[in-house]
Write the structure tokens for this entry.
Amino acid sequence: MIYNMHKYLILIVLMINNAYSQELVPPIQNFSPSNYVAASQNWDIALDDRGVVYTANNQGLLVYDGLSWEIFTLESQSIIRSVYPHSDRIYTGSYKEFGYWENLPDGDMAYNSLTPLMSEFNMQSDEFWEIISYKEAIYFRSFGAVYKYEGDRITKIKDVVSTALGVFQDKIILTLRKEGLAYLDNNELIPLKGDQKILDDINIIDIESKGDTLFIAGKESIYTYTNNRFQKFPDNRLNEILERSELNHIISISEDEIVIGTIKNGIVNYNLKTGQIQVFNRTSGLQNNTVLGMSYDKGRLWLALDKGVDMIDLKAPVRFYTDNTGELGAVYDIQKFDDDYYLASNTGVYSFSENNLNLIENAEDHTWNLEVIDGVLYANHNTGIYRIENDQFIPIEARTGSFSIKKLTDGSNRLLIANYTGLSLYNLDSKEISEVSSVNFPIKEVIIGDNSTLWAAHPYEGVYRITHDDFSNVQVEKISALGGKANFNPKLYELNKQIIIYVNEKWFQYNPFKADFEIFEELGEYSKSRLLFEENAEYVFSSSDDGSIIITDLKDEKIVIPTESLNNRLVRSNENFVKENDSIFYITLNDGFARLNLNQLKGEDSGQWISEPFIKEFSDLSNRYNLTETPVIPFKNSRNIVLKAGMPVSDAVNLKYRLDGEENIQGTLNNGMINLRNLEHGDYELTLTASGSNEDSSAVRKFHFSIAPPWYLSAWMKTIYVFLFIGLIFLIYWLNQLKLKKHQFQLEEKFEKEHAERLNRIEKERLMNEIDLKRKELANTTMMAAKKNEVLMEIQGELNKDKTKFSNQFRLKHIMNKINSAVKSKDEWKVFETNFNEVHEDFFKDVLDQYPKLTSKDLKLCSYLKMNLSSKEIAPLMGISVRGVEVHRYRLRKKMELDSDVNLTKFLIKNF
């Protein structure tokens, strides 16, 4: 259970500079003109069924949804004098103007004038000051007449000067100016039964029905009408206050209480049963003493003031005392002693009695602590240790300042004082002060472990264990740093006879068996909270995170009092929670203190009213959307979506939001507005949850909206994308087919090329083989011809040798000619030439092209040299001697103009 006390904010305003006393007041929340940004003056105030506050302001209709203010002005800019929520309409009256406001589907408010329905009436300078409902009709009045609005028709009831309008015992009651009271019967005014002489010459300001009693408010007193009898209110104390304050309004807030609004002195809260009177005015915290309108709902009193709007939580379990002079300063401790209260602050020690605050003489300067021991009140002061008797500040020791004082548990009548320089012992019997030896450092807190052990907290350097023998043989041992850091500003506690240390945002407990400290798991949840109070398994912590006060039993119960609920007035790091009895506790604050009724707080926690949050605007960069439908926001407008919500003032702790959809966002809505930026397109659900202190107490509102996809993701574009995709598939298929065909064509070309190359290679190889064969054949035939010619020439030579031996010379000559013919056969040359051309195509042509003067015989020699034949091999082929071949070669070289170092054979082989 987490308890919200935001509603308990209090803003205390100083009315009289030298004011020095003030009673305890409930939380008062001020809304100044700078808060709601409208005119200062407010004439009327009312709440609708949801808890939304409507105020008749000088500038228009002022609306407060619990999170933010908004002003709606009339087209004529007239002052609105009265306001009345009824059904789904907000009726307002102003100068010669009456009508109603209603919420439009987009959350805005529009005004509908009903003045045209009154065109037949002769309205002079009428202003409509009051509006009520009765049965199905709306009644409203000016100072000159009373009107009735029913069924889209306005009728004038009476031309009568009336100052108040109400309902009593199922009748419409009018107050007639100095003529008493009357009720309406068939549009006729009939005086109320009874003797009204007591009201003669009384200017009746307001009336209020309460059961069988009608309260009649005059300007300076109150009268009642019961059982047909008029009488003045019997409590003269109240009438005396009203006589000085000038009554303006009266309302009933419970069976036993009425609240009276005044012109000069704020409000008077009167208990009909006990006669208790409470006055709340500017000194108490109101912004202004002139109350022009009042409205009450669920314990909260709303005031329309001459300057601003205020809310008083009359039923709050907390009451505040605030010193408006600033002299009190930060309060560190508070103690009840001899039926009075004493406050220790940074400016001294004060007594607080009958709502009067008085500084004790000589008690100026910083005071840390107050302690009552054996019926004596002690003060730990910046200059020493003092006792307070009959509001006298009596020094015990003024050598050095002190932090705390405790009585020893060893049975001796001695007090242990923790001071700025160490420890002191104060003997109550002898009144003597002695220093504890070996302890020469400041000690802020000390815990008495047993008769021989002390635990001391240094304000800066950690915790010490001090052992002693009746404070002799003192041994000081510094505890090693806990939590892995230097133990700055540790806090010492004794819980259930265990020594507990809070340091570095961790809890440690002393284990006597291990003689060491270990993590204290039981308080692990409160690692960022300092313990203020513990009794009967009820713990009070102060959170170091947000400064809130946490009250818990470490099990199911958990009550949180946020620091805002105490107007951020907690004395951080020095918070104090002081018990008076089982129900009443005090919380020290800057410039005062708060009194908390814990039982009332727990009772409220179990019966909370949580107002339902609502959406009042949903808009984007250019449009405001209908809240009764599911808005669809164009993507181009979705960069900044504004959502405004309301949560009327209630017992809710906070208003959280959670966005679910394409993106998930959550947080706390503080100022009534959420900015959603750059959301992805899609469907979203926004959940607003107003939660109370009880986990079962919550109110939830869900709102759905969608962000349309961008144009390139819209439905028609998706259709185009589908067609484009299908087209792309066909294009890819077509391109693949083309590619496949091209590949197939390339394969065919490659195959054909490879096939042609293979055929060419085969053909080339065949040709090369043929050439080689022909070359071999040419070589063979050439060699055979050479051999043949060589043989023939040898035969010819032999014949020449023995030609004288032949008897027939003619026959010999014939044989010799035949041999010559055979050697120089032209047919053989033709065959050779043919075969040679097959092997060495265009040889003769190329040689003749380069050397045209060569003879056939030269060509023949060139061909033989091309075949790389030697002179010896060439000689038989040409039918000449080797010498002849050499001579021919020489001549050929000359014709070809070759240098002597050029090998003729190689030249012909290489170049032809």
Remarks:
- DSSP finds eleven helices and 64 strands in the chain.
- Residues 128 and 142 are 4 Å apart (CA to CA).
